[in-house]
User: What shape does this take?
Amino acid sequence: MIPTPPIMTATHEVLNQARALENYNAYASNLPLQEAVAQQGAGWAQDWLMARGAEVGSAEWIEHGRLANAFPPVLKLFDRYGNRRDEVDFHPSWHECLGWLKGNGCDTGPWAEPKPGAHVARAAAYVMFAEIECGSLCPTTMTYGAVPALRHVPELAREWMPKLLSRDYDRRFIPAAEKAGVMIGMGLTEKQGGSDVRANTTRAEANGGDANPGTWRITGHKWFLSAPMCDAFLVTAQTAKGLSCFFVPRWTPDGRLNEMRIQRFKDKMGDRSNAGTEMEFWGSMGWLVGEEGRGIPTVLEMGVYTRLDCAIGSTGIMRAALSQAMHHTSLRAAFGKLLKDQPLMRNVLADMALEVEAATALSMRLARAFDAQDGRIRITAAPHPHAGGEILDLQALPDPGGRGHGSARRQRLRR
Ligand SMILES: Cc1cc2nc3c(=O)[nH]c(=O)nc-3n(C[C@H](O)[C@H](O)[C@H](O)COP(=O)(O)OP(=O)(O)OC[C@H]3O[C@@H](n4cnc5c(N)ncnc54)[C@H](O)[C@@H]3O)c2cc1C
Assistant: This one.
């Protein structure tokens, strides 16, 4: 047998390189988060968050985050027999991530078990998970925001709420009635207007006759519809009375696929583990949510919660960038000193640490406003960590030098 020659060690030994940042506790090592959680009324959750932090920092969960992004979703428009399915295949790690998020109540925990500090505890777990995988946070957030909007429709809430509040993530593509837990997405944005939802041209007509009383037919195109494997969507469409909000399930009550057709996946810069789609509604069956013609206030009820998550998710990404930068500069030496001890690098790291601490404190304060239902603070403050995240990620990128551009985990911070 021919001996296998050593490949790298034949030419050089690998020296002065950091090792992977893994098997650490993402909560124990995040003092600003611990303090903010205690200050904002969720001190009771410290032990629970400590256990979640150990999971999120483990090599196993970091690897799930990597795999969910390294193997992006695959569109399966048809089954092998030619039947239209509009289905998406995900890597198993994507499902693991959603299982962790739903299992820990990051979608509907504060609604299922309301108590002072519930939104803060959930936000802290969400911040930590954002350090390892962000695409799966998208349906998690939309499900979180959908609960208050759906409470307007007792007939729907009766059937859907127990499964929304469940901690069971059920990955199967089958009617919601047969599932243990469900998730909700949203379809608002159209080509001609995203922020300005009033520009929607998708229309809805009431179904006449006795066949499906109270239902509507939705027809039109949505330019962004993320997480298409959610079980139902809040969709905006025009009626004779103006823009209205509808609940559109993937399956109709008689067990048929609802008429929702995926056109293609979005080719996005970030959010790659998630399957952002362009979707067409072909007379899809839906139910009115809220008052006809009052679609904007109804979807804003969901939107205000998604804005909180823009802030806390960005805080998690900022924290991930800082952790990577601190870790690398603590192990890599240049010009006779560890990088973290070089005066200019210290300045950069200290600036970043301050930004992250501020974003952490602000995010947890915002989450407390959701506990207290203080709408004034909730709406205005959310964009700040979001903007800060983009600036800080750019700062953190040069710290690991060339390696920073080559590591999958760091590339994800930049997307
Ligand atoms: C990863 C990803 C996932 C998404 N998933 C979904 C989804 O699941 N469902 C869905 O419905 N949508 C989704 N969207 C779409 C998103 O909601 C829209 O992109 C967003 O609402 C902005 O709309 P727009 O892209 O049309 O930008 P525009 O509305 O054209 O805005 C362009 C720019 O102008 C700014 N702007 C707009 N109005 C004003 C104003 N009055 N004053 C000053 N500045 C203004 C905006 O802040 C923005 O910077 C997703 C987007 C992304 C990137």
The chain has a mean pLDDT of 91. The chain is about 45% helix and 15% strand. Residues 185-189, 193-196, 224-226, 268, 271, 276 surround flavin-adenine dinucleotide (CB under 6 Å).
